[in-house]
Design goal:
The protein is an alpha+beta fold. The chain folds into 3 domains: about 45 residues, no CATH class; about 110 residues, Band 7 domain (Tetrahydropterin Synthase, Chain A); about 60 residues. The protein contains 7 helices and 8 strands. The strands form 3 sheets. The protein has a 3-stranded antiparallel sheet, with helices on one face. Strands 6-7-8 form a 3-stranded antiparallel sheet. Helix 2 crosses helix 3 and helix 3 crosses helix 5.
Length: about 290
């Protein structure tokens, strides 16, 4: 094989590689949830959204930035409460990169991850500690949602204008010292005991009221029964007195009533013994 032919083949292969390189280096795709920063010789010349795009081969470079929502956890962050109780806290922050700030993000940080580390990694702990420190240990538990909302707002204000958007903050866990947790447990037990004593006192009060009510009802019933008996006795006495008065009046007006009564009550038998000289105790018949 002659040198000319070898040279020709080499040139042909080089040309083919160049054609392939140009062909494949002249376009690029951007996935949904990403943006692409296009640089030419190190200078940003454009930002592309999701889709198919063309570029100048060999001289243009493409760097994609993820603009999807992401999450960063801050574990065992030591924070002191307003009453000087140390607490190990765990937080979760959701965030995303602002698509319109892609060029600025690339120019300042090079990547979304670097931006999150430098901005969120420093500003969030500062705002969380400052806000958390305004709450006592007990109010953290009682007003947890209010605390989280305050930390979220403070963090969003701290990162405003940086190209990073904080979409939410969650307080995953708060761990106080063993001594404090024991004191809380003891206080809760004491409150339970006090509540139980109050409940027993209320129950006894109600029972006493029931007993008094029953006694009053029983006394009222006894009084009513006594009054009824007294009324009945009085009525019988008045009736008997009226009968006696009526009977006396009848005897005064008609003495024969005595004889009639005697006759009505006589059983037909004469006395077995009589006092000497006495007469038969009976009125003669006309």
């Amino acid at each position: 094989m002659s040198e000319v032919r070898v040279l020709g083949i080499g040139i042909g292969l080089f040309a083919a590689v160049g054609v392939v390189t140009v062909a494949f280096g002249s376009w690029y795709t951007v996935d949904q949830g990403e943006v692409a920063v296009v640089t030419r010789n190190g200078k940003v010349v454009g930002v592309s959204e999701a889709g198919f795009h063309g570029k100048a081969p060999l001289v243009d470079s493409v760097t994609t930035l993820d603009i999807r929502e992401q999450r960063t956890d801050f574990e065992n962050m030591l924070i002191y409460t307003a009453d000087q109780q140390p607490s190990a806290t765990t937080w979760s922050v959701t965030w995303k990169a602002e698509p319109t700030a892609a060029e600025s993000i690339y120019a300042q940080f090079g990547s979304v991850e670097n931006m999150a580390n430098r901005i969120l990694g420093t500003r969030f702990p500062d705002r969380a500690k400052a806000t958390f420190g305004g709450y006592t240990a007990s109010s953290v538990v009682r007003d947890r949602s209010t605390l989280v909302a305050a930390v979220t707002k403070a963090t969003q204000e701290a990162v405003a204008g940086t190209g990073l958007i904080v979409t939410g903050v969650q307080l995953i866990n708060v761990d106080y010292s063993d001594a404090y947790e024991q004191s809380v447990e003891q206080r809760m037990q004491a409150e339970v005991e006090v509540a139980k004593l109050r409940e027993n006192a209320e129950r006894e009060k109600v029972q006493a009221e029931i007993t008094v009510t029953q006694a009053e009802a029983k006394a009222a019933a006894t009084k009513a029964a006594a009054e009824a008996d007294a009324f009945a006795i009085k009525a019988r006495g008045e009736a008997e007195a009226d009968a006696i008065r009526a009977r006396g009046a009848a005897l005064r007006e008609s003495p024969e009533v005595v004889a009639l009564t005697t006759a009505e009550r006589w059983n037909g038998a004469l006395p077995q013994t009589m006092v000497p000289g006495s007469t038969v105790p009976f009125i003669g018949v006309r």
